[in-house]
Structures are given as C-alpha cells and as structure tokens.
Amino acid sequence: MNETIYYKQRLRLNRGELKDFNDLPEDVKTNFKIIKNKIIETINEDIEVQLFGSYFHGFWDDQSDYDVIINKNLNNTTLMYIIRNLLFQYKIKVHIKITNRKTLLIP
C-alpha cells in the first residue's frame, strides 16, 4: 500500500493495518512492552493489553503516541498514575482506552 495520508494535521505514510506485533520497529515494540508491564505491575493482575491507534492502523510517525486497550475498569487515579509514570520515568506518551474491543495483543 504505502500511500501517504493526512491525519491529525500531519502527512503520514500509510503502511496498512498491522498484522503482526513483530512488524513494528524495535524501539516501538520495547515501549509497548514497557507500557504493558507498567499496567500489569500497577494493578497487580495479568491482563491482556492490546495496541490500537496509529501504530495498529499503520500510519504512525515520529510524533505518534502509544495507544493501548485494556478490558479492565480502572479508576481515574490509577489511570493517571500509570500515564504519568510512563511519561516521567520513560518519556512515553500513552493513551489507555478501556473497552472490550479486540485488536492486536502485545506479547
């Protein structure tokens, strides 16, 4: 595919929907795994964490944040703790969405 699209006021390369987590760049895979581990560590429960957003849809760029889905209700205090910790400790900007939608699991 590899056409360009205009999304969120930026021109991006459209790689197509991601089929395999391992197709992501190494640094991105590492960051998604850090996010997953921080969520599991914080809530003390082994849950599925899935990716979505521009990485899942294949049109990420160097300004893209990390979007993940969890199927677990968390209160706002817990969510903000995870988000702030990832930003300040790892410089990872993350958006956590709570839904039962299925996309691509983070191994």
Q: What portion of residues belong to β-strands?
A: 15-25%
By CATH, the topology is Alpha-Beta Plaits
**Number of structurally distinct domains:** 1
CATH class: Alpha Beta
Sheet with most strands: strand arrangement: 5-4-3-6
Regions with little confidence, pLDDT below 50 for 5+ residues: none
Number of H/I helices: 3
Structural class: alpha+beta
- The helix content is 25-40%
Q: Main β-sheet: number of strands, strand sense, barrel status?
A: 4 strands, mixed
Please provide the count of β strands. 6
Mean pLDDT: 92
Shape: globular
User: What is the CATH architecture descriptor?
Assistant: 2-Layer Sandwich
Order of helices and strands: EEHEHEHEE
The N- and C-terminal alpha carbons lie at a distance of 26 Å
* Rounded radius of gyration (Å): 14 Å
